[in-house]
Each structure stands twice: as C-alpha cells, then as structure tokens.
Amino acid sequence: METTLRKHIRDIPDFPKQGIVFKDITPILQNHGVFEGTIKSFVERYRNREIDLVVGIESRGFLFGAPIAHQLGAGFIPVRKKGKLPYKTVEISYDLEYGSATIEMHVDAIAKGHRVLVVDDLLATGGTADAACKLVIKQGGVVVECAFVVELGFLNGRSKMGNVPVHSLVNYS
Ligand code: AMP
Question: What are phi and psi of 98, to 5 degrees?
C-alpha cells in the first residue's frame, strides 16, 4: 500500500507559496482502487478499537474521515476554520509560522467518554492536529489516535502531539 500511495502523491513546488512543497493527494482520490485501499487500511486498524466518532479536519480530512467513519459504523464530526460552522461552537487558537489560526467544532459534537479518532490528510508541524485533539479532550472525549495519510516526518509534528498516539500511512522523513 505504501509504495502505491507514494506513486499517487504529487509534489507541487512553491504552492500555495514560495518554498513550500505541497503534497497533492488528489491522485489518490481519483483512483478508485487506491482510494478504497487507503480507507480500508485505516478501517482495518481501527475496526476493533470501539471508535464512537471520527473527527475530520477541514478540508481534506473530510475526504478521508467521512468514509472511515461510515465503514467503522461511527459518527463523523467536522472540525472547521472559524466562522464556517452554523451552530454554537467551541474553539481553539494555535500558533502558525506567521500569526495564528482558530478552529471550531459544534458544542454538542462530542459527549463525555466518547472514543474519538482524529483524521487529516497530512501531518506537517502538528499544530492543527494538536489543536483538534485539545478540542476533543476539552469536550470530554478520548482521543484514541490521530491518523494521517501523509506525515512530513522531518518537521517533527509528532513531538507536538503530547501523549496522543499518531499513525500515518506514508512518512517523508
Ligand atoms: P500543520 O498544522 O503544520 O501540521 O499543518 C497541517 C495542515 O496543513 C493539514 O490540514 C494539511 O492538509 C496542511 N498542510 C501543511 N503542509 C502541507 C503540505 N506540504 N502539503 C499539503 N498540505 C499541507
């Protein structure tokens, strides 16, 4: 699976800005077999972990998180950038390289003790996923694991995640 995935992750230099190599995962989505295999490898890992909810991080985390939730028989919760969710929200701000960002989830999204899998397409510095985990914990949820298709290991995002276990399918170390 890992070799196949590497062939379906496209490097886009200088996107969205100079100096960033963007990992484009759309070729994974484009190929039914590869997309299915990607979802399946997560589902097999978490099938017996009693996951109540999958939290997907905007926006590419939705593309992987929703089918994983569906196949696990779990609910799906979107975490979005501030101002996008329609109902009452809880929010958290975190530092970016320049400035800061705020993400939100609905105030009634997670009940105390819910076992939660957090999903995004890519782990870079870990700031976004760490903030999403903190939101889940603040709502009384238990983060079972944070799962990513791609990990940019050289950025050491894992070290930001504290005690939360991290899993990725492809690591660029
Ligand atoms: P971070 O908070 O630094 O871990 O950044 C993670 C978020 O930014 C994820 O939602 C990723 O989709 C996106 N991201 C960061 N760096 C890249 C990259 N090089 N290629 C694609 N997406 C990225």
Answer: -125, 115
